[in-house]
Amino acid sequence: MSDIPPFDATAHTTYTQPPNPTWTYGQRVDTTPAGKAWVAGEPEGWKVYNTAETDKMDLLMLMMSGIAPRPIASVSTINEQGVENLSPFSWFNTVSSYPPIISFACNDSSSGRLKDTAVNVMNSQGFTVNIISEPFIENANATAINAPPGFDEWSISGLTKEKCVQVKASRIKESAFSMECELYKSIDITHPVTGEHNSTLILAHVKYIHVRKDMITDRGFIDLTKFKPVAGMGDDAYARVGDAYRLAWPTWAQEEATIQDALMTLASR
């Protein structure tokens, strides 16, 4: 990687206006400078992938890079013999806040067996999900190694185990946002034609959330300028949260008149 610039540790998240602050309802994408540049590639057309005929590795590369950025969960589990496991997952997101449910998909190993994380989750029903931040991305990335079954990735991570309130598995002390979880439901993901088992979708019920106090804003949000969460981008690329912009969600009560005016203007053209 000597041909790419070094990491800039001085950069941090800043907030700006949205890309097109003067946009109005019904305005076409190609009427803004950025939108016009964006649609300039449309004449080249689209390459359509029939997933039933596309190689599984090609599908993996497409979906990992096309569905991005994705948050990364560092999942800590423990097996029935007391051996702990730590592994990152980017097929991860939130499902519901009440009840607090999160999900992550644990793909089978290249040999077709269930990974330790999936086995441990289904056997113990207690585990932690830890959000990765920039200062320890290398530590967390080391735990992605394809180690043999039963290997304790904590031993090579340089991360610190911290006890939980309820679950036996450790949480990562360096993580500013960790969740103690119990298995809510596991779903076997099989190919609809061949029946081949490819992945296990884990739905987790969050029982306790550990948040570092210096990360919490007065409004109860997590401060992204301090949190520095890392995102997965496909290939071996990770992303940082750089410039963020404020864009309020519209409400019908406030926007109805503006929308009706915009629709009348569009209809008269």
Please state the average pLDDT score: 91
Share of residues in strands: 25-35%
**CATH homologous superfamily heading:** Electron Transport, Fmn-binding Protein, Chain A
Structural shape: globular
Integer count of domains = 1
Under CATH at level 1, the class stands as Mainly Beta
DSSP helix count?
A: 7
Share of residues in helices: 10-25%
- The name of the CATH topology is Pnp Oxidase, Chain A
Radius of gyration: 22 Å
Can you name the CATH architecture?
Roll
Arrangement of strands in the largest sheet: 4-3-7-10-11-6-5
Instruction: Give the ordered list of helices and strands.
Output: EHHEEEEEHEHHEEEEHEEEH
The strand count comes to 14
Secondary-structure class: alpha+beta
Q: Could you give the distance between the termini?
A: 54 Å
Q: What can be said about the biggest beta sheet?
A: 7 strands, antiparallel
Low-confidence stretches: none
Task: Give a brief outline of the structure.
This protein has helices at 33-39, 56-66, 116-124, 137-142, 154-157, 224-227, 252-267, and strands at residues 14-16, 70-71, 73-78, 84-89, 92-97, 100-107, 126-131, 161-162, 171-172, 177-190, 197-211, 230-232, 238-240, 243-245. The chain is built from 7 helices and 14 strands.
Write up this protein.
With 269 residues, the protein is an alpha+beta fold. It is built from seven helices and 14 strands. It has a seven-stranded antiparallel beta sheet, covered by helices on one side. Strands 2-12-13 form a three-stranded antiparallel beta sheet, with no helix packed on it. It starts with 13 loop residues before the first strand and ends with a helix. Residues 11-24 have a biased composition (Polar residues). Residues 65-223 form the Flavin reductase like domain. GO terms for molecular function: FMN binding.
